[in-house]
């Protein structure tokens, strides 16, 4: 059972009486407190006496010119003022908070475009119609008030205090349009010398360098392929679009290219898959792991990602 649902033994003073006492103590008199709370002076006096009876201690000394706080009243008044201020702040935040719940997801541009956005209706259904806010950035978005609830990051593991659950490998494949491969077959990595290599302008993502064509060709055993020439685009999803148009051959992970492989718009140019130091992971603060929205999104993601990867692998195998 969540901690906030455990039974608590509380014996609280009447809130109306606390409000009356706080106002009287702040104004230094019953009449001014009555004017602020829009009640009679008699009502304020009655509420103060009710609180005194509840405490079994006097809070005011009464005399002909008005009232003054007792030593106990002087010590309690700032405490009650702080409690009422906090209650007022919480109530104001509740009134201004959107009526619709929101799940904020932070991720990389290309992962959002290629994989998350086509599945937004499914995510909404899995979350019961909750509003989804998608934030994309190469920089890591901190988990702080107003920031993301969860993130999908390309990283090696979890930072302290965070959960980082593996979604899929970041292994890179060489991908091209079916028409390009049919016109100029690519049987070995060396055959890539006859094709335009489409480069992503890489960034350091979570401190991890992503593999480029030079790394991929070396690890695939290619020789004599000019690894630095070709076309360059800012993000992986732009590289995939260029490859789909028949412009050349792009590098991408199975997850990013899943929908294009499933639909047959892209095919593997070669069977090689070269692993990277990082992988795609679902990241969230450990203490928030049991929150219903985060749990439902996690459950959907952990079911949908393997399904889409399996379909993409099957499509890639059929195309060879």
Low-confidence stretches: 1-5
> Looking at this structure, what is the CATH superfamily of the largest domain?
Periplasmic binding protein-like II
Output mean pLDDT.
88
- Helical amount among residues, as a percent range? 40-55%
Broad CATH class of the largest domain? Alpha Beta
Structure description:
The strands form four sheets. Strands 4-3-5-14-6 form a five-stranded mixed β-sheet. Strand 9 and strand 10 form a beta hairpin. It contains eleven helices and 14 strands. It has 320 residues and is an alpha/beta fold. Helix 1 crosses helix 2, helix 1 (15-27) crosses helix 4 and helix 2 packs across helix 3 (41-55). Helices cover 42% and strands 20% of the residues. It has three domains: 13-96, Winged helix-like DNA-binding domain superfamily/Winged helix DNA-binding domain (Arc Repressor Mutant, subunit A, Orthogonal Bundle); 102-168 and 279-314, D-Maltodextrin-Binding Protein, domain 2; 172-268, 3-Layer(aba) Sandwich (D-Maltodextrin-Binding Protein, domain 2), CATH 3.40.190.10.
């Amino acid at each position: 059972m969540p901690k906030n649902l455990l039974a608590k033994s509380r014996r609280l003073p009447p809130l109306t009486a606390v409000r009356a006492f706080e106002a009287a103590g702040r104004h230094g008199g019953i009449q001014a407190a009555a004017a602020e709370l829009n009640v009679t002076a008699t009502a304020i006096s009655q509420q103060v006496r009710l609180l005194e009876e509840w405490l079994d201690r006097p809070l005011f000394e009464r005399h002909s010119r008005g009232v003054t706080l007792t030593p106990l009243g002087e010590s309690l008044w700032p405490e009650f003022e702080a409690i009422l201020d906090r209650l007022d702040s919480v109530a104001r935040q509740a009134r201004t908070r959107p009526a619709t719940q929101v799940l904020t997801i932070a991720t990389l541009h290309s992962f959002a475009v290629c994989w998350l956005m086509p599945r937004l209706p499914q995510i909404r259904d899995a979350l019961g119609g909750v509003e989804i806010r998608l934030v994309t950035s190469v920089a890591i978005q901190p988990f702080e008030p107003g920031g993301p609830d969860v993130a999908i990051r390309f990283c090696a593991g979890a930072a302290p205090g965070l959960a980082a659950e593996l979604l899929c490998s970041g292994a890179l494949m060489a991908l091209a349009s079916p028409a390009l491969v049919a016109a100029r077959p690519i049987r070995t990595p060396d055959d890539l010398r006859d094709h335009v290599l489409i480069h992503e302008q890489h960034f350091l993502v979570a401190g991890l360098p992503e593999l480029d064509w030079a790394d991929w060709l070396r690890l695939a055993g290619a020789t004599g392929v000019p690894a630095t020439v070709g076309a360059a685009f800012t993000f992986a999803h732009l590289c995939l679009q260029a490859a789909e148009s028949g412009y050349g051959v792009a590098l991408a992970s199975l997850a990013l290219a899943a929908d294009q492989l499933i639909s047959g718009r892209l095919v593997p140019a070669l069977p090689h898959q070269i692993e990277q130091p990082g992988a795609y992971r679902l990241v969230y603060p450990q203490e928030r792991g049991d929150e219903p929205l985060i749990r439902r999104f996690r459950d959907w993601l952990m079911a949908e990602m393997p399904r889409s990867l399996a379909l993409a692998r099957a499509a890639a195998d059929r195309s060879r």
